Input
Amino acid sequence: MYFEYKVVGGDFTIAGVASSQVKKTLKQLGIDSSIIKRVVVALYEAEVNVVAHAYEGVIYVDIKGDGIKLKVEDKGPGIPDVSLAMTKGFSTASSSVREMGFGAGMGLPNISDNADSFRIETVVDKGTTLHIEIKFH
Amino acid sequence: MLLSAICSIVEGTVICGDLRLNEEVTHAFSSDLMSDVLTLKRDNFLLITGLSNAQSIRTAEMSDAPYILLCRGKTVSKEMIELANENNIAIISSPFSMFKCSGLLYNAGLNPVY
Output
């Protein structure tokens, strides 16, 4: 199964719509609830990151029998120092993002914690692509 | 502890999810930081928060937390209620602070996640 979702930068009212749809789909497929939680937490963190930091983005979801592949591609400022961005507590989020309950520098590390495989591609002033894989078994 | 008892202890009002009032709640987590809530491995807990927006409902949805206690009588928007109903999440609103809600419920035997 293959799905695509557009994400609009700055629009917190719809942040989480894609993650919610993926959760419903995985439930219908009978995937174990602990795996579903890992998938949707990682995806939701990534979705919020696009809304918080980028101009726009696309989420590509590829569900196969043995697992799920998520590609979250955005057009945005990129990440100048990936290892710094992966440090718990480091954040460049604006005060408006913090008012929404995010921007504490926990997103990328939490994605990594929940993923079986996690890779970041980024180009400053162009954008960032996250590759997340989670196995079902 | 039943959700109805929690509601009574914090002198709360049920905003939505009345059908969950007879459910047993064992654990709670208090935070305004949704990123922190998303790190919890536990599910089926009560989220106690002062953050009243769509992302607190979304965070509860992703975290498998079916109960939210909003402190300090924060306004709950129509969109939040719709989102909560769609995901079968109960919302209770209390006039008390997050500190007071947490203290009362801990004292009454509700367990902390950590």
About this structure: The mean pLDDT of chain B is 97. The CA atoms of residues 22 and 34 of chain B lie 27 Å apart. Chain B has one domain: 3-112.
